[in-house]
Amino acid sequence: MQEFIAINEQRAEFYWWMSSLFATELTQQDLDNYHGGDMDNYYSVLAMTDELKTPIAELRDALAKLKVREDAQLELAADFCGLFLSTPKSGALPYASMYIGETGLLNDKPAVEMGQWMDKYGIAQRKDFNEPFDHLAVELDFMGNLVILANKETDEEKQEAMMQEQQRFLETMMLPWIEQFQQTVYQFDKFGFYKAAANLLVSFIKLDRAFLKGE
Protein backbone atom coordinates (compact mmCIF):
# COMPACT_ATOMS: atom_id res chain seq x y z
CA MET A 1 0.00 0.00 0.00
CA GLN A 2 2.79 2.41 0.91
CA GLU A 3 4.53 1.68 -2.38
CA PHE A 4 1.28 2.33 -4.26
CA ILE A 5 0.90 5.69 -2.51
CA ALA A 6 4.54 6.66 -3.12
CA ILE A 7 4.39 5.84 -6.82
CA ASN A 8 1.23 7.88 -7.24
CA GLU A 9 2.74 10.82 -5.39
CA GLN A 10 5.71 10.74 -7.77
CA ARG A 11 3.41 10.56 -10.79
CA ALA A 12 1.30 13.46 -9.55
CA GLU A 13 4.43 15.49 -8.84
CA PHE A 14 5.52 15.15 -12.45
CA TYR A 15 2.13 16.19 -13.84
CA TRP A 16 1.99 19.22 -11.56
CA TRP A 17 5.53 20.20 -12.53
CA MET A 18 4.68 20.07 -16.24
CA SER A 19 1.44 21.95 -15.57
CA SER A 20 3.35 24.85 -14.00
CA LEU A 21 5.93 24.81 -16.79
CA PHE A 22 3.31 25.22 -19.53
CA ALA A 23 1.00 27.53 -17.56
CA THR A 24 3.02 30.73 -17.59
CA GLU A 25 6.44 32.24 -18.18
CA LEU A 26 9.17 31.01 -15.84
CA THR A 27 10.48 33.55 -13.34
CA GLN A 28 14.14 33.98 -12.41
CA GLN A 29 13.40 32.07 -9.21
CA ASP A 30 11.96 29.23 -11.28
CA LEU A 31 15.10 29.12 -13.40
CA ASP A 32 17.30 29.15 -10.30
CA ASN A 33 15.34 26.18 -8.98
CA TYR A 34 15.65 24.37 -12.32
CA HIS A 35 19.43 24.78 -12.12
CA GLY A 36 19.55 23.81 -8.44
CA GLY A 37 20.69 20.60 -6.80
CA ASP A 38 17.22 19.38 -5.81
CA MET A 39 15.95 19.51 -9.38
CA ASP A 40 19.17 18.00 -10.69
CA ASN A 41 18.62 15.05 -8.35
CA TYR A 42 15.05 14.81 -9.62
CA TYR A 43 16.27 14.71 -13.23
CA SER A 44 18.67 11.94 -12.27
CA VAL A 45 15.86 9.88 -10.73
CA LEU A 46 13.71 10.31 -13.85
CA ALA A 47 16.66 9.37 -16.07
CA MET A 48 16.92 6.01 -14.32
CA THR A 49 13.91 4.98 -16.41
CA ASP A 50 15.14 3.99 -19.87
CA GLU A 51 12.27 5.67 -21.72
CA LEU A 52 13.07 9.00 -20.06
CA LYS A 53 16.86 8.91 -20.31
CA THR A 54 17.10 10.69 -23.67
CA PRO A 55 14.36 13.29 -22.97
CA ILE A 56 16.02 14.18 -19.65
CA ALA A 57 19.40 14.51 -21.40
CA GLU A 58 17.79 16.91 -23.90
CA LEU A 59 16.26 18.96 -21.10
CA ARG A 60 19.56 19.14 -19.25
CA ASP A 61 21.26 20.26 -22.46
CA ALA A 62 18.67 23.03 -22.90
CA LEU A 63 19.17 24.12 -19.29
CA ALA A 64 22.94 24.22 -19.80
CA LYS A 65 22.42 26.48 -22.82
CA LEU A 66 20.15 28.71 -20.73
CA LYS A 67 22.99 29.29 -18.28
CA VAL A 68 25.01 31.04 -20.97
CA ARG A 69 22.08 32.67 -22.78
CA GLU A 70 22.12 36.45 -22.43
CA ASP A 71 19.08 37.75 -20.54
CA ALA A 72 17.97 34.15 -20.20
CA GLN A 73 14.79 34.77 -18.21
CA LEU A 74 13.57 37.54 -20.51
CA GLU A 75 14.43 35.58 -23.64
CA LEU A 76 12.72 32.44 -22.34
CA ALA A 77 9.65 34.49 -21.46
CA ALA A 78 9.66 35.78 -25.03
CA ASP A 79 9.89 32.18 -26.26
CA PHE A 80 6.88 31.29 -24.13
CA CYS A 81 4.82 34.17 -25.49
CA GLY A 82 5.81 33.45 -29.07
CA LEU A 83 4.94 29.79 -28.75
CA PHE A 84 1.88 29.68 -26.52
CA LEU A 85 0.28 33.14 -26.64
CA SER A 86 0.39 33.77 -30.39
CA THR A 87 -1.57 32.34 -33.31
CA PRO A 88 -1.72 28.86 -34.91
CA LYS A 89 0.35 30.22 -37.81
CA SER A 90 3.31 31.18 -35.64
CA GLY A 91 3.06 29.15 -32.44
CA ALA A 92 1.91 26.02 -30.66
CA LEU A 93 -1.29 26.99 -28.91
CA PRO A 94 -1.71 24.73 -25.84
CA TYR A 95 -5.42 23.98 -26.27
CA ALA A 96 -6.81 20.58 -27.26
CA SER A 97 -9.54 22.32 -29.29
CA MET A 98 -6.93 23.67 -31.70
CA TYR A 99 -5.83 20.13 -32.62
CA ILE A 100 -8.85 17.85 -32.32
CA GLY A 101 -11.77 20.28 -32.18
CA GLU A 102 -14.36 20.45 -34.93
CA THR A 103 -14.28 24.21 -35.60
CA GLY A 104 -10.62 25.17 -35.23
CA LEU A 105 -11.69 27.63 -32.52
CA LEU A 106 -11.21 27.74 -28.77
CA ASN A 107 -13.71 26.20 -26.35
CA ASP A 108 -14.68 23.46 -28.76
CA LYS A 109 -15.77 19.93 -27.79
CA PRO A 110 -12.55 19.05 -25.89
CA ALA A 111 -13.11 22.00 -23.53
CA VAL A 112 -16.69 20.89 -22.91
CA GLU A 113 -15.57 17.33 -22.21
CA MET A 114 -12.84 18.59 -19.88
CA GLY A 115 -15.44 20.56 -17.96
CA GLN A 116 -17.43 17.36 -17.53
CA TRP A 117 -14.42 15.55 -16.11
CA MET A 118 -13.81 18.38 -13.65
CA ASP A 119 -17.45 18.41 -12.56
CA LYS A 120 -17.49 14.64 -12.12
CA TYR A 121 -14.61 14.68 -9.65
CA GLY A 122 -15.14 18.10 -8.10
CA ILE A 123 -11.71 19.29 -9.22
CA ALA A 124 -11.83 23.02 -9.95
CA GLN A 125 -9.49 25.07 -12.09
CA ARG A 126 -7.22 27.45 -10.22
CA LYS A 127 -8.98 30.78 -9.82
CA ASP A 128 -5.87 32.68 -10.90
CA PHE A 129 -5.60 30.76 -14.18
CA ASN A 130 -8.30 32.11 -16.47
CA GLU A 131 -7.95 29.85 -19.49
CA PRO A 132 -10.28 27.43 -21.34
CA PHE A 133 -10.64 24.06 -19.62
CA ASP A 134 -8.72 22.24 -22.38
CA HIS A 135 -5.52 24.23 -21.83
CA LEU A 136 -2.60 21.83 -21.44
CA ALA A 137 -1.77 23.15 -17.98
CA VAL A 138 -5.35 22.56 -16.80
CA GLU A 139 -5.40 18.99 -18.11
CA LEU A 140 -2.04 18.21 -16.51
CA ASP A 141 -3.08 19.68 -13.18
CA PHE A 142 -6.30 17.66 -13.33
CA MET A 143 -4.38 14.46 -14.05
CA GLY A 144 -2.19 15.08 -11.01
CA ASN A 145 -5.28 15.46 -8.86
CA LEU A 146 -6.87 12.37 -10.39
CA VAL A 147 -3.77 10.37 -9.49
CA ILE A 148 -3.94 11.52 -5.86
CA LEU A 149 -7.63 10.60 -5.62
CA ALA A 150 -6.60 6.96 -5.97
CA ASN A 151 -4.46 7.34 -2.84
CA LYS A 152 -7.48 8.42 -0.85
CA GLU A 153 -9.28 5.15 -1.53
CA THR A 154 -8.81 2.37 1.00
CA ASP A 155 -10.70 -0.29 -0.92
CA GLU A 156 -8.58 -2.07 -3.55
CA GLU A 157 -11.43 -2.30 -6.05
CA LYS A 158 -12.04 1.45 -5.79
CA GLN A 159 -8.31 2.09 -6.17
CA GLU A 160 -8.27 -0.01 -9.32
CA ALA A 161 -11.31 1.83 -10.65
CA MET A 162 -9.54 5.17 -10.14
CA MET A 163 -6.45 3.89 -11.93
CA GLN A 164 -8.67 2.85 -14.84
CA GLU A 165 -10.15 6.34 -14.88
CA GLN A 166 -6.65 7.79 -15.11
CA GLN A 167 -5.96 5.56 -18.11
CA ARG A 168 -9.24 6.61 -19.71
CA PHE A 169 -8.42 10.27 -19.15
CA LEU A 170 -5.02 9.94 -20.81
CA GLU A 171 -6.46 7.99 -23.74
CA THR A 172 -9.45 10.24 -24.40
CA MET A 173 -8.30 13.70 -23.31
CA MET A 174 -4.53 13.89 -23.77
CA LEU A 175 -3.10 11.28 -26.13
CA PRO A 176 -5.37 12.25 -29.08
CA TRP A 177 -3.63 15.63 -29.37
CA ILE A 178 -0.47 15.82 -27.29
CA GLU A 179 1.85 14.58 -30.06
CA GLN A 180 0.43 17.10 -32.52
CA PHE A 181 1.17 19.78 -29.95
CA GLN A 182 4.68 18.38 -29.48
CA GLN A 183 5.33 18.48 -33.23
CA THR A 184 4.15 22.08 -33.43
CA VAL A 185 6.46 23.06 -30.58
CA TYR A 186 9.28 21.35 -32.49
CA GLN A 187 8.42 23.46 -35.52
CA PHE A 188 8.46 26.83 -33.81
CA ASP A 189 10.77 26.60 -30.78
CA LYS A 190 14.12 27.74 -32.11
CA PHE A 191 15.98 27.78 -28.78
CA GLY A 192 14.80 24.34 -27.72
CA PHE A 193 13.85 24.51 -24.04
CA TYR A 194 10.13 24.01 -24.59
CA LYS A 195 10.87 21.48 -27.31
CA ALA A 196 12.76 19.42 -24.75
CA ALA A 197 10.00 19.88 -22.17
CA ALA A 198 7.32 18.78 -24.64
CA ASN A 199 9.37 15.72 -25.59
CA LEU A 200 9.79 14.75 -21.94
CA LEU A 201 6.07 15.23 -21.32
CA VAL A 202 4.99 13.04 -24.23
CA SER A 203 7.50 10.35 -23.26
CA PHE A 204 6.21 10.35 -19.70
CA ILE A 205 2.54 10.23 -20.71
CA LYS A 206 3.19 7.22 -22.96
CA LEU A 207 5.14 5.54 -20.16
CA ASP A 208 2.40 6.31 -17.67
CA ARG A 209 -0.28 4.90 -19.91
CA ALA A 210 1.72 1.67 -20.24
CA PHE A 211 2.05 1.57 -16.44
CA LEU A 212 -1.71 1.99 -16.02
CA LYS A 213 -2.36 -0.75 -18.56
CA GLY A 214 0.00 -3.08 -16.69
CA GLU A 215 2.38 -3.39 -19.64
TrEMBL record:
Organism in which the protein naturally occurs: Grimontia celer
Pfam families tied to this protein: Nitrate_red_del
Entry keyword set: Chaperone, Cytoplasm
Chief subcellular location: cytoplasm
Signal peptide (from-to): none
Cellular-component GO terms for this entry: cytoplasm
Chain's role: Involved in the biogenesis of TorA. Acts on TorA before the insertion of the molybdenum cofactor and, as a result, probably favors a conformation of the apoenzyme that is competent for acquiring the cofactor.
Cellular compartments annotated: Cytoplasm
GO biological process assignments: protein complex oligomerization; protein folding
Family: Belongs to the TorD/DmsD family. TorD subfamily.
Protein name as annotated: Chaperone protein TorD
